[in-house]
Write a structure and sequence with these properties.
Blueprint: H1 13-24, H2 31-38, H3 47-59, E1 64-68, E2 71-75, E3 82-86, E4 92-95, H4 98-109, E5 122-125, H5 128-136
Parallel strand pairs: 3-5
Antiparallel strand pairs: 1-2, 3-4
Helix pairs in contact: 1-2, 2-3
Length: 137
């Protein structure tokens, strides 16, 4: 999504840098990680400003917030997908499966009184790096 697509939003330097960081960042950074990354360019930005802008950009549909065990993470990937989450290092990766998405939405059609528009499944386990570390100990 290009910045100019949402004309009703004022694009401050902070918002532009937050969006740029998230588009370049591989993964699903937390507020702290976004703050650390954006602060390299905007040295005077506060964590509160980053947090408020992340919430604002999410509300405006420019970001997706993924909450895992009470920790908010942010991404710009709006293509329906699932997540692989390491229980050790908390690394989160996207996992694409049309089959799982189709199955989930088929089940969702059977739910009465609630219209489901999307679905996401989180898979928890150990990433390759953490598995290797456990083998060495």
């Amino acid at each position: 999504m290009e910045l100019t697509e949402k004309a009703d939003i004022k694009y401050t330097n902070q918002r532009i840098e937050i969006l740029a960081f998230l588009r370049k960042h591989d993964g699903h950074p937390t507020v702290d990680e976004v703050y650390d990354g954006v602060r390299k360019k905007l040295t005077r930005i506060s964590k509160a400003t980053v947090y408020k802008n992340l919430k604002f950009l999410t509300e405006k549909g420019l970001l997706e917030e993924v909450n895992v065990k009470g920790v908010s993470r942010f991404e710009t990937n709006f293509i329906p997908h699932h997540h692989l989450i390491c229980r050790e290092c908390r690394k989160m990766e996207d996992f694409n499966s049309e089959q799982l998405l189709d199955y989930s939405m088929k089940i969702a059609e059977e739910i009465e009184g609630f219209t489901i528009v999307s679905t996401s499944t989180n898979f928890y386990g150990l990433c390759e790096k953490c598995r290797e570390c456990k083998k060495e100990t």
